[in-house]
Structure formats: C-alpha cells, structure tokens
Amino acid sequence: MPTVTATPPLLERYPEGSILPQEGLDQPAWVVRREILEDLARDLRDHPETRFDLLLDLCGVDFPERSERFEAVYHLFSVTRKERLRLKVPVSEAEPVLPSLVDVWKGANWFEREAFDLFGLRFEGHPNLRRILTHEGFQGHPLRKDYDPARRWVLTEDKVYRPRPQQPVEEEDEDLFERMTINIGPSHPAMHGTLRVVATLDGETIDASEVEIGYLHRCFEKMSETHTWQQVIPYTDRLNYCSSFINNVAYCRTVEQMLGIEAPPRAVWARTILSEFSRIMDHCVCNGSVLVDAGALTNFWYLFQPREEIYGLLEACSGARLTVAYGRIGGLAADLPPDFEDRCRRLLETIPPFLDDVDALVAHNRIFLDRSVGVAAISGEEAVNWGWTGPCLRASGVGYDVRKAYPYDLYDTVEWEMPVFQGGDVYDRYRVRMAEARQSLAIIRQLLDSGMPEGPVMVEDPHVALPSKEAAYTQMESMIYHFKLIMDGIQVPAGECYSMVEGANGELGFYIVSDGSGKPYRVKVRPPCFPIFSTFSRLIRGGTVSDAIVTLGGLNVIAGELDR
Amino acid sequence: MTQELITTLVKITLWLVVLLTTVPVMVWVERRASAFIQDRRGPNRVGPLGLVQPLADALKFIFKEDITPTAADRPLYLLAPLLAVLPALTTFALIPFGPDVVIDGRTVPLIVADVETGVLLLLALASLGVYSLVMAGYSSNNKYSLFGGIRASSQMISYELALTLAVLAALIPVGSFRLDEVVLYQQGTWLGFLPRWNVFPQFIGFMVFLIAAFAETNRVPFDLPEADSELVAGYHTEYSSMKFALFFMGEYMSMATLSALAATLYFGGWHLPGVRFSDTWYWALAQGFGILLMKVALFLLFFVWVRWSFPRFRFDQLMRLGWKVLLPVGIFNLVLVAAMTLAGWL
C-alpha cells in the first residue's frame, strides 16, 4: 500500500513537537496539536506534495485513562496522488474544542456534527453544530466510554428541532410572493429509507433546504464495543442492506489485517464474486429507484428481477437473503454450495437482458433525458471537496475506485474497466451504475473461468476459526478453543487500522481500534453515502421538487448506513 | 313525447351501464396489462384469470374507513369527488354510437343529446373536470394536495387549448359541430383503399389531440397532479374509501370519453368501411355500438401501454411542451386543414 514519504514535506514548517509522525499498521499517522490543525489541514490540502483533497472520515475516540481524553481522528486521502494520511488530534475533557475544518473540506460539516453528537467534541467555527444522529433532546454523548448504554431518556416532541430553511428574501419580493415550507419525509414515498428534507419553495423551485437524518440510528458503533469481534458481523449487514455482503467483507478484511492473517484462496475467490454480485444488486436497486422516482415504474421490476435471482444465490450460500452475515473473520461462514458455479453462470446469462431492456427503455428516452441530464450536476473538484467517492464521483469525471487504486482480493487478477463519465448529473450517475454492473459481470465471468480454488474457506488458525462441531465434541483441545472463542472472542492485538473496500456506493472504510481484548475498542464506519448526502441541500438548490426527488434516488443514500 | 322520453332514457341507461362497466373492466385490464408488461403475474386469485378482482376492489373501497381531515374545507372536500365523475358521466351524451334507426316508423338518432352545439358542449363539460382536482387540492388542507391541485389547474387549462385546436381542425372539413355529421363525413374511402378517416389527412392534429388527451386525463407521462413519487398522491392524498374511488372512476371514465371522442373525430366513430348496417334497429345498434366500443378499447389499451412504458415529465417541461410545441403545432394544423379544405382536397 503506497504511503506518504518518510519525511513529510510539511513537518519543518510547524513548531517542533506539534506534529509527531507515527508508523501505522495500515497508513502513516501524525499526532497533531490542535493549535496548528487548521493551518496544517489547509497546507495538506494545497501543498503540491501532499494534495490531500478528500477528507474521508472524521471520528472521535475516547480514552478515559489518558490526560487528554479524546482523540479526533481524521482520515485524509489524496485522489490525485493516491496517498493516505491519518491525523490524530488529542483534546482534553475539560476543553474538548477543535477548529472546524468546514472551510477546508466541505465534507467535514456532517462528520464534525457527528463527533459533537457522539463525543461532545466542539468544533469552533462550525456553521451549524447540532446533534445529527441522536434526538435533539438527548442528553450526554453516547459513544463516550462512561456513557451507560442502559440509560433511558424521555424524548418529547417539544424538544424536536424544527428546521426553518431560510434564504434571504428581497424586500420587494416579500409582499408579492409567499414562500411555502414543505416537509418531505421521513415517511414519503420517494425518501427511500427514513430521510427528511425540509424545503422552502418559491413556486416549485427549491429556495433553501435542510436535511435531517438520524431516524434510523441504531447505535451500531456503540453496540460493536460490547460484542465480540465475530458478533459484530451481523450488525454490518444492516449498514448498507442493499449489498450487505460487501459490508461483511470490509469489516472482516480490516480485522484480518489487524490479526495479520489472510483468508484462504477459496474464500477470497468467493468473496470477490459475491461482492460483485452484491454490487450489481445495489446498482439495480439504485437505478430502479431513480426510474421509479422519474415515474417509469416498469423499469423497477426489470431491475429487481436480477436482484431477486442474486438473492437466490446468496440464500444458497448463507441461508439468508437480505442480511447474509456470510463473511467471517478469516474466511466465510460456510463452504460454498456444490452448484455454486452453475448458479453463477446461470446468473451471468439471465442478468444482462434485464439491463439491456432498461437501457432500451430509458437510456435514450427523451423524457428521461430531459429529467436527468444536467440535473443536480456537480463538478469533480467540488464533489471531492465534499468527500464523495464511488460511482457518484466517477460520474463527475474523477476516476477513483478502491478496486483499481488499491486492488484487494482478486481484483488485480482480472481485467475490467472503470467507467468514468463527465457530466456529474443524474443521468451520468445512472450510466455509471449501468456500466459498472456490466463490468461486474465481466469480473465474475473471468473469475469463474479461472476456476474455483479448492481447499477450506476458513483459516486454519485455531485462535480465529471455530473448530468443527465434531472436533469440539470429541477433542479436549478443540473444545477449549471453542469455549475461548465463544466466551472471550478472538484476541486482536492492540492497535488501530483503517481498511477499505469499494462499497457499492463508494469507499466503505472501517476504522477500528483494538485494546487487545476480545471486543473492539472502537469501530467507526466510513459510510460512503454520509458525505454524499450532506451535499444534498447544495445539489437541489434552485431545482424543482421533482429534480430533488430524482436526485435523491441517484445518490443511493441508504439510511441503514447513513444513520448507523 | 313519451316515446321520445323513453328512448332517451334507454339510451342514457345503455351508456351508463357501459361506462360504469368500463371502470372495473379497465381496472382489471390495467392490472393485468401492467403485470404483463412488467414481467409478473398480476391479480390471478379472485375468479378465473382474476376477473372478479375488480369486485373485490370495489368491496374493499366500500368498507375502508372514510376519513375527512379535521381541518379540511368540508363542503368543497365533499364536492370534489362528485365533480370528478360529473363531466365523465355527461359528455358521453354527445357521442353518436350508431346510424339513425327506424323503430315503429319513427326515426331515432343513436345519440343521447342531438344538439347543434355538439362538440362545443362536450368540450365545455369536459373542462369542468379541472374544478374537481383544484377543489380537492385546495380543500384537503395538505400541502402536497395543494401542489397537485395547482399543477392540475395549470396543466389542464394549458392542454385544453391544444386539444380544442385539434378538435376544431377536425371539424373544418365537416362544417358542423355535430359529431354525427363528423362520422357521416368519414364514410367512404381515400384513394379507393384507405378508410376516409380524418386521421390520415390530419395526422398532426391527431397527435396533438392524443398528447393533449393524455394530459387532460392525468395519465403518465402527464400524471403530475398525482405524481406519486413526488407528491405522495397529489390532489387525492387525503381521500379514502369511496371518495377516493370516485376520483379513480372519474379518471377511467374520462379516459373512455376521450377515447370515444378520438375514435369519433379521427377514426370514423361507429362506422367501419365494409360493414353493412342491418335494417333491424337492434342489430344496427349492436353493430354501431360494437364498432365504437372496439375502437375505444384499442385506445384504452394504448393508454395503459403508454402508462407503463414512460417516465414522467417535470412540470416546467410539461408547460413548455404545451405552450411552445403543441399550441403552435395545433395552430399550424388548423391553418393547414383550412387551406386544404379551401383547396377542395378534403
């Protein structure tokens, strides 16, 4: 994995001791004094030798025993130079204040609100520092280690924040026109999931809007801290539930990296194939909902049919359809079904006609073109600044795909193209997804042709893999391992790791801190749709309500992953 | 006098039965056809081929709780669904459905209201439909409904212009507002083999009429007043039970009426070349009615087919299409047809 140079160019600009470089397991990390954070961030973004133009993630970590209790962790990425850097900024409990980086990276806005909400870190200069995932009337900061998860609060409606998006109205305007405030969601047919947008309208045109999230917050990160490493896997299914297997892979790979183990070839092979099938599914769901929102209902069925059939494959593997929980740290939960290859090949036959039909119906349909071309367009540069990744970013002309930039699993053994379109609008997001679904099919075909590797689907390390049932019942040693794994969990060495895969909607990263025990100390997901959705107000301003609805479908915002 | 009254009542009853049957039949057709288009089965449990499904739907509608929002404007709220079916139930009176027949030595025209103003009255009645949508949208006290109502008013008023222009052009060569004369005009053939239907010389006008008819009936791609993904259900968001069903019926019945109008104006109405009408009055009635219904059915199928194939317009695009494309094209068509008529080609 490429990293920044050993002597970073910016170190000498700052007073001695304000930046302490650390060697990381995964990427270099700098411990930074908060006084210089803002200047450093700006330098890191603009300096030609660093060019960290994308803020991937920002989260807090709580170490109650340290004198400076909290640590704000920033993950930076340079799209142009394909380099990564982690900044860790310690802050004390007495004064948990940091400078806000919203001016440097617009994408920091929601991340900072989240860190404020969950840890009570205050970001000075933030334009709108309020709770984001929890209720307005919530007390305390739930991800602090001393927060008792059993605490209950009475959350009443009078404490609800009432958004009043306002755009300055010109005076002469005021008497003639009345603005209407309309509440779209959280239960509205086009808000896929529980999203809420409050928009002020001038006629049908959206003047200003505010986005509210958190209706599906399920404390995933807090729960992870009280479960053993393997037990976290079913929770990851519920992040992006349209492609749950990819989440399994992302989480398992991160823990495997911390453990220093690798899944056996057969498992890696199956992971790659199933990830690609999941991606096809996700893209089908996303494009299907774009088209439904545009009024073309039939395409939804055409695109849900492949999804249905892929679910059949996942069901044969894992027994579950939606939330598969098929990945395991060290491999897969169970061996592949005997007819796995046949099923995959059948799917390769059945899926393309559906994609072709949809393309034939809408790709050149004048009405759909009118509805989507140029709608909610965003330039590549701006999208990067907002923290976009994945198909949405590739629709804006920036060719960044984790599978190409940091090939994992078997992606470097197959030949495929990364579709990139320039428009950055709803139409190009649609086209990128259609093209990617076809590329995924090509990847799967090549992997099938290369042959299924023989062997186990789980590592043979008894500290990680559960012994077979027979062994656990008949051999003393296996029984002890079984007991230890179930009761204490896998012992992951202390340390931290950020690892990512290309999720269906962008870089899906897991930042995990371990204290060496059987449970994660801190799990932070980098949900790809979180920064994307934070851009929503900017995207829909000046458009009509219809545009906003179509735009939302094309961003593929999955509430499970957004709210965690 | 009494005889005339009786024949008129019979004619009205006949139409009413047909129109009111259209709704359940269309519900079934729409559900089965959409299922066919969308590669799924559709309702197939209630009765053979799911044919009794509409009955089950109707029962469900009747037994659903009938809700009136507390803050609704009650009189308007109740009036709106009634107004939705009113135009659909009156306009049929002006559509001829067969040749003049002789019953007991008395000539009876097969049209309910044989009036001089013909099409004009029909258009006037049809345009009342917009009131229902606006009232529903306004009185529900729901922002989405209001949106739907506003969209409906501007959409239907805009498209009525184009619709009227197309109808007007179809009347020019005939020289009369009476639809039965329009049908008589279309008897015979063009060039010896084409039926003498208006659709051939006035294809542009027919397209304008068709597009405007879609907009008038609020069907995809012009279903913006209800635009389910944007406005929840638009103007009828707050309606339930039979009140909702009335909107539903209104939509299907106005589809049927506009289809009948299209068939009459452009496809020869109850007339079909090569069909010799019987001298017995009831056979002639059955023939005329059958031919008209067949044409209407084809139009209705077309409506369904389009609905499940196209995305929806955006509102500004819809208005642009109405005012900047359909209206000029309609005027052009009007001038063209007038010139052709003056030249003696039509």
Mean pLDDT of chain A: 85
Walk across the major sheet of chain B and give the strand order.
Answer: 1-2
The low-confidence runs of chain B, each spanning 5 or more residues with pLDDT under 50, are none
* Quaternary organization: heterodimer
Task: Describe the structure concisely for a colleague.
Chain A has helices at residues 37-46, 108-119, 171-176, 220-224, 233-237, 244-259, 265-293, 297-318, 340-363, 366-372, 380-385, 390-394, 402-405, 426-449, 469-474, 476-487, 529-534, 536-540, 545-555, 559-563, and strands at residues 19-22, 29-32, 54-62, 70-78, 83-91, 97-99, 122-124, 180-184, 196-202, 205-212, 327-328, 331-332, 495-503, 506-514, 522-526. Chain A has 564 residues and is of the alpha+beta class. In chain A, the strands form 5 sheets. Chain A has a 5-stranded mixed β-sheet with strand order 1-2-5-4-3.
